[in-house]
Inverse folding.
C-alpha cells in the first residue's frame, strides 16, 4: 500500500463508502482519506454495479467484495479507471465517469457473479445431503415409482417429442414426471409447433437456457436469420416432420398445435403450460448462460439454467411482469410471409395435425402488438432483475441496515 | 534452486505460434535442463488463459474450465524455471493479473519475469484485422480502422485491439509490481533479415541460450500464416455466407484451418495486406511514443527499439474492401479445389467405415446364427423370467466385470 495522491485518495474513500453501502455517485463524491491506497482500485464497472446494488438494498459484505474483485465475463471493454482518480495518462483506455457506463457493461460483471452463484448451487455427488437434497431424493424415488407404473400400462400411447425445443422440453419433463418417458417401439413422432414468431422466441429462449455455445442477442439473431433467408430447424415443423416421415413413415408423424388435443392423445390430464418469461428475463438468462459456460460443462450448465435459474426468473416475473419477446417491426414482413410458407408446406406434406394448421401463421396485428422495448430501456430492466437476483440470493443471511446499506453509509458520512 | 517464472503475455502476431510450438515439442528436453513448459497439449496455455480471463472462444471454453489453476499448481510444484506463454494474456485486467501472479508465486519468493514480444504498429494493424476475419468477422477494413481510431475505444474491436497491442498499457497492467529489469521486451526484427534472429532473441529472453548442451528442434510445425488482400477479402465474403449456418466447432477446422491456413495462405504472389498510406504517420507517431515510454521506464530490451520504426508506406496499396475481382476469383477456385479434395477424402473415409460396419454386422449375424449361441440365448431368456434368475444373472455379470446393460 502506498500513500495516494488526491485523486487516488478520493477514489479510495469512495470505494470505502460503497463497501459501507453508500450510494453517492462518483461525480458527486467529495470525500477523501489519509489512509494508504490499495495496490489496484476496482474498475469503474465493478464500482458502479456495487453502487447500483446499494441503491436496491442492503448488500452483504461478502457480496460487496465479490463485486469489487469480479472481472467482466467475455469480450468487451476492460476494467476502466475512474475519471479524476489519477493523473491523466496518454496510454490505456480513457477513464470514465461510472454513471455514464451503459447498463450492458455492468451486466457483464453481474452475469458472471450470478453464474458463480449457479455453479456453487450445483452441490454434485458426495456433498452432505441437505434438506433440498433429501427433497430431491424423495422426488426421484416417487418418479421412479411412477415410471414403473407406466410400464404396467402397455396400452399407453408411446411418443417422441420434437420440433419447438423449448415447448417440447417442458412437455417431456412433465410427461416424464408423470411416469411417461418418451420412446418405445412404434412411438408417435409429435412435432410441437406454434405460430412462427412464438417458435422463434422459443428457439432463442431454449438456446439462452443452454450453455456451451455463445448466443447472439435476440435482434442480432433475427437479423442473421433474415439475412440468410432461412429459419432454424427448431422453428420449421414442416422440415422436421419431413425428416421424421422419411425415417418412420408419415403415419407416425403428427403436427401438434393444440395442447388439449395432445393431452387427449397421450391420455393425460392437462399438460404443463409453457413457461412464459418477460423478454428482459430471457436476455438475462442469455448473459448468465454465457458466463456459466465458462465455469461448468454444457450438460450441468443446461440443468442449472433450467432447474435453478428458471424457477427464480419465473418467480420474479410473476412479481414484476414485463412484456414477452417480440419481433422487431423491421422483421414483421418476412416473419409473416415465412409463416404463410410454413403453413403451406405443412399442408402440402399432408401430415395429421392436432389443432388448426392456420395457427402456424404469425398475423401482422399480433406481431405489432408485441413490439419489443428499445434496447437501452431493456438493458436497464435486465440490470434491475440481475440486482434483484444477486441480492435475493442472500435471503435471510442479508446484513441488516446496521451492518450494510445506505443507512449505514449515511451514518458514516454524518460522523 | 529458487523458483523462477517466465510469463510471456503477448503480443499477437509476433511469432508466438512458432515459439509455443518449439517449446511444446521440446518440453521433455527442456525439463531435463530444469525448465518446465507445463503443457499436455499444444494449446494448453491458451485454454488456461481463457479460463483466467473468463473468455468464451467458440465453444472451447468448456475445455478450459479449471485450466489456469491446474497450470499454476504445476508451476508452483516445480522448483526451477517455468515458462508460460500465450499472447491473449496481454489483454488481462488488473484484477486478473493480480490473480495470475499470486497463483504462480510460492511462499519462498518466486522470481517472476515478464516477456512481451512486440512489432511495429504498421504491421500489427492489418495483421489484427486479418485475425478478426479468420475468426468469423465480417467487418470491413475501413470500419475496423475507424473503430481503432475512435478515442473512446468503446467497440469490442477497439477494446480487444488496444488491449493486446498497446505496449505501455500492457506493461502497466502486467509489470506494475515488477522491477523493470524483470520486464523483457523482445522486438520482432524488420522484414528481410535472417530468419532465426527472432528465435535467438526469444532464446535470450527466456535464458535458454545459457543452458549447456540444450539442443532444441526448431523445425516449425505450427504457424499462423498470413493471407494476401484477395484471400482475406474472399474469407470475409465466406464469413458472411456461412456464419448463420456453420457452428464454431465446424468453422475452425473447415474455414480457418483448411481454407485459410492450408490453402489460401499458400498464394503468396497476390498483394499483401498493408496499412493505408494516409495512416502511416499516425501509426508511426504512436509507435514512437510507445518506444520513448519503454525507454523511459528502463525495461530490458532484447533486440532494438528501432525495430518498432515502420518502413515506408508501399508504393501501390491494395484495398481489401475493393479487391481485384479476378484475384478473388482465383482464390475462390483454389478454395473450391481444396474443399472438393477434402470432400473426396471424407467420402472415401465414409465408404471405408460403411464397409467396416457392414462386415461387423455380418460377423454379428453369423455369431447369432451359431447353434451354441442360440442355445445360450434361450437359456438366458428362461433364467431371466424369474426375479431370482435375474438376480443371479446380475451377480454373474458383476463377477465377470461387465456391468453395462446389453445393447
Amino acid at each position: 500500500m502506498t500513500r495516494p495522491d488526491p485523486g487516488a485518495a478520493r477514489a479510495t474513500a469512495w470505494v470505502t463508502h460503497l463497501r459501507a453501502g453508500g450510494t453517492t455517485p462518483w461525480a458527486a463524491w467529495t470525500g477523501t482519506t489519509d489512509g494508504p491506497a490499495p495496490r489496484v482500485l476496482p474498475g469503474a464497472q465493478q464500482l458502479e454495479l456495487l453502487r447500483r446494488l446499494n441503491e436496491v438494498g442492503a448488500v452483504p459484505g461478502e457480496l460487496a467484495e465479490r463485486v469489487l474483485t469480479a472481472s467482466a465475463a467475455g469480450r468487451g471493454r476492460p476494467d476502466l479507471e475512474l475519471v479524476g482518480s489519477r493523473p491523466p495518462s496518454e496510454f490505456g483506455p480513457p477513464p470514465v465517469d461510472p454513471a455514464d457506463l451503459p447498463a450492458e457493461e455492468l451486466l457483464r460483471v453481474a452475469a458472471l457473479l450470478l453464474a458463480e452463484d449457479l455453479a456453487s448451487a450445483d452441490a454434485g455427488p458426495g456433498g452432505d445431503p441437505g434438506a433440498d437434497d433429501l427433497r430431491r431424493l424423495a422426488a426421484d424415488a416417487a418418479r421412479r415409482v411412477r415410471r414403473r407404473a407406466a410400464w404396467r400400462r402397455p396400452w399407453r400411447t408411446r411418443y417422441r417429442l420434437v420440433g419447438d425445443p423449448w415447448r417440447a422440453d417442458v412437455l417431456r419433463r412433465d410427461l416424464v414426471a408423470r411416469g411417461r418417458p418418451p420412446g418405445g417401439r412404434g412411438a408417435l413422432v409429435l412435432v410441437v409447433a406454434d405460430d412462427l414468431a412464438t417458435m422463434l422466441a422459443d428457439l432463442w429462449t431454449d438456446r439462452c437456457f443452454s450453455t456451451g455455445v455463445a448466443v447472439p442477442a435476440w435482434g442480432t439473431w433475427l437479423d442473421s436469420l433474415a439475412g440468410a433467408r432461412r429459419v432454424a430447424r427448431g422453428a420449421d415443423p414442416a422440415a422436421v416432420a419431413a425428416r421424421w416421415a422419411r425415417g418412420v413413415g408419415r403415419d407416425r408423424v403428427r403436427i401438434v398445435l393444440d395442447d388439449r388435443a395432445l393431452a387427449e392423445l397421450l391420455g393425460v390430464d392437462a399438460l404443463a403450460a409453457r413457461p412464459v418469461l418477460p423478454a428482459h428475463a430471457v436476455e438475462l438468462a442469455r448473459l448468465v448462460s454465457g458466463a456459466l459456460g465458462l465455469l461448468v460443462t454444457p450438460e450441468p450448465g443446461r440443468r442449472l439454467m433450467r432447474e435453478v435459474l428458471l424457477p427464480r426468473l419465473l418467480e420474479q416475473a410473476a412479481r414484476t411482469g414485463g412484456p414477452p419477446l417480440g419481433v422487431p417491426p423491421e422483421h414483421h414482413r418476412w416473419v409473416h410471409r415465412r409463416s404463410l410458407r410454413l403453413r403451406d408446406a405443412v399442408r402440402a406434406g399432408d401430415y395429421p395435425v392436432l389443432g388448426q394448421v392456420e395457427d402456424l401463421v404469425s398475423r401482422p396485428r399480433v406481431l405489432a402488438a408485441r413490439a419489443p422495448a428499445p434496447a437501452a430501456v431493456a438493458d436497464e430492466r435486465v440490470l434491475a432483475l440481475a440486482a434483484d437476483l444477486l441480492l435475493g440470493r442472500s435471503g435471510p443471511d442479508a446484513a441488516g441496515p446496521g451492518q450494510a446499506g445506505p443507512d449505514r453509509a449515511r451514518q458514516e458520512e454524518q460522523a | 534452486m529458487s523458483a523462477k517464472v517466465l510469463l510471456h503475455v503477448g503480443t499477437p502476431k509476433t511469432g508466438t505460434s512458432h515459439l509455443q510450438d518449439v517449446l511444446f515439442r521440446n518440453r521433455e528436453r527442456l525439463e531435463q535442463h530444469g525448465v518446465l513448459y507445463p503443457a499436455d497439449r499444444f494449446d494448453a496455455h491458451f485454454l488456461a488463459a481463457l479460463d483466467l480471463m473468463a473468455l468464451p472462444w467458440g465453444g472451447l471454453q468448456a475445455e478450459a474450465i479449471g485450466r489456469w489453476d491446474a497450470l499454476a499448481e504445476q508451476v508452483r510444484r516445480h522448483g526451477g524455471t517455468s515458462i508460460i506463454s500465450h499472447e491473449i494474456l496481454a489483454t488481462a485486467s488488473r484484477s486478473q493479473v493480480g490473480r495470475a501472479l499470486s497463483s504462480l508465486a510460492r511462499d519462498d519468493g518466486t522470481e517472476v519475469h515478464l516477456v512481451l514480444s512486440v512489432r511495429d504498429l504498421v504491421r500489427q494493424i492489418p495483421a489484427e484485422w486479418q485475425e478478426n476475419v479468420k475468426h468469423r468477422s465480417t467487418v470491413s477494413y475501413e470500419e475496423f480502422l475507424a473503430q481503432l481510431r475512435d478515442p473512446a475505444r468503446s467497440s469490442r474491436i477497439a477494446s480487444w485491439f488496444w488491449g493486446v497491442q498497446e505496449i505501455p498499457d500492457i506493461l502497466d497492467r502486467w509489470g506494475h509490481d515488477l522491477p523493470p529489469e524483470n520486464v523483457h521486451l523482445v522486438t520482432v526484427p524488420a522484414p528481410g533479415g535472417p530468419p532465426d534472429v527472432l528465435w535467438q532473441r526469444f532464446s535470450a529472453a527466456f535464458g535458454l541460450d545459457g543452458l549447456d548442451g540444450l539442443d532444441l528442434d526448431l523445425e516449425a510445425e505450427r504457424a499462423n500464416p498470413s493471407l494476401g488482400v484477395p484471400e482475406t477479402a474472399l474469407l470475409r465474403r465466406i464469413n458472411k455466407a456461412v456464419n448463420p449456418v456453420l457452428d464454431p466447432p465446424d468453422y475452425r477446422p473447415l474455414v480457418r484451418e483448411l481454407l485459410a491456413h492450408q490453402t489460401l495462405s499458400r498464394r503468396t504472389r497476390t498483394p499483401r495486406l498493408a496499412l493505408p498510406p494516409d495512416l502511416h504517420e499516425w501509426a508511426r507517431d504512436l509507435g514512437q511514443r510507445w518506444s520513448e515510454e519503454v525507454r523511459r521506464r528502463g525495461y530490458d530490451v532484447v533486440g532494438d527499439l528501432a525495430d518498432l520504426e515502420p518502413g515506408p508506406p508501399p508504393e501501390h496499396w491494395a484495398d481489401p474492401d475493393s479487391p481485384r475481382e479476378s484475384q478473388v476469383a482465383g482464390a475462390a477456385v483454389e478454395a473450391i479445389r481444396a474443399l472438393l479434395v477434402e470432400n473426396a477424402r471424407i467420402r472415401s473415409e465414409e465408404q471405408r467405415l460403411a464397409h467396416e460396419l457392414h462386415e461387423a454386422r455380418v460377423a454379428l449375424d453369423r455369431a447369432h446364427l451359431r447353434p451354441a449361441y442360440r442355445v445360450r440365448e434361450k437359456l438366458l431368456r428362461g433364467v431371466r423370467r424369474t426375479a431370482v434368475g435375474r438376480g443371479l444373472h446380475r451377480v454373474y455379470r458383476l463377477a465377470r466385470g461387465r456391468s453395462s446393460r446389453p445393447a
